[in-house]
Design goal:
This protein is mainly alpha-helical. The protein folds into 2 domains: 67 residues; 79 residues, Arc Repressor Mutant, subunit A. It is 70% helix and 0% strand. It contains 7 helices and no strands.
């Protein structure tokens, strides 16, 4: 042996031999949830491509194809996020009507799930249980998304709406007197 791994004989052997290493490689690039799909796409693209029968070093070729599929996924994710962000801004404008632009922008920056929960809770006046039913998620998940959305909106908007003299931390007066 010359120290190089031997090339598997069949496509099934190729997959069995190389997939675990390619999945580890892809996990470093895209994370554990997307890595198996990226590798499956890479194998499918490679093995159904016209050059597959001529490939001398299948291991190297599959690493290149996997890298290409990672790039495809990242581009696709970037485009999807851009579309969601634009859709969020459009929805926020529709939701808020004549609201101030900073409020529209803050709502648009929420995740799509948070925007949905905020909309259904405040604009459609649904209870968390009803929101959970509409979105097909648990009541606890609705409450969690709503709490995170409120916290983010509070953090974004508080500096804009807090009077200048109140921006420094001042202890509250005891209101129970």
């Amino acid at each position: 042996m010359d120290g190089q791994p031997t090339e598997p004989d069949s496509d099934a052997d190729t997959y069995r031999t190389l997939a675990p290493n390619l999945i580890r490689y892809a996990t470093l690039l895209v994370g554990p949830s997307d890595a198996p799909d990226v590798v499956a796409d890479a194998f499918l693209a490679a093995m159904t491509g016209p050059r597959w029968a001529e490939v001398q070093n299948r291991r190297a070729y599959l690493y290149r194809v996997t890298t290409s599929k990672v790039s495809d996924l990242q581009r696709s994710t970037s485009r999807r996020r851009q579309r969601e962000s634009e859709a969020g801004r459009e929805l926020a404008r529709a939701w808020t009507g004549s609201a101030r632009p900073e409020i529209v922008t803050a709502i648009a920056e929420l995740s799509s799930r948070q925007r949905a929960v905020v909309h259904l809770t405040y604009w459609d006046d649904l209870t968390p249980a009803a929101v959970a039913d509409v979105l097909g998620i648990s009541d606890g998940a609705v409450r969690r998304h709503l709490a995170r959305a409120r916290a983010r909106l509070r953090a974004e908007l508080r500096p804009l709406y807090q009077p200048q003299e109140d921006r420094t931390h001042q202890p509250r007066e005891d209101r129970t007197k």
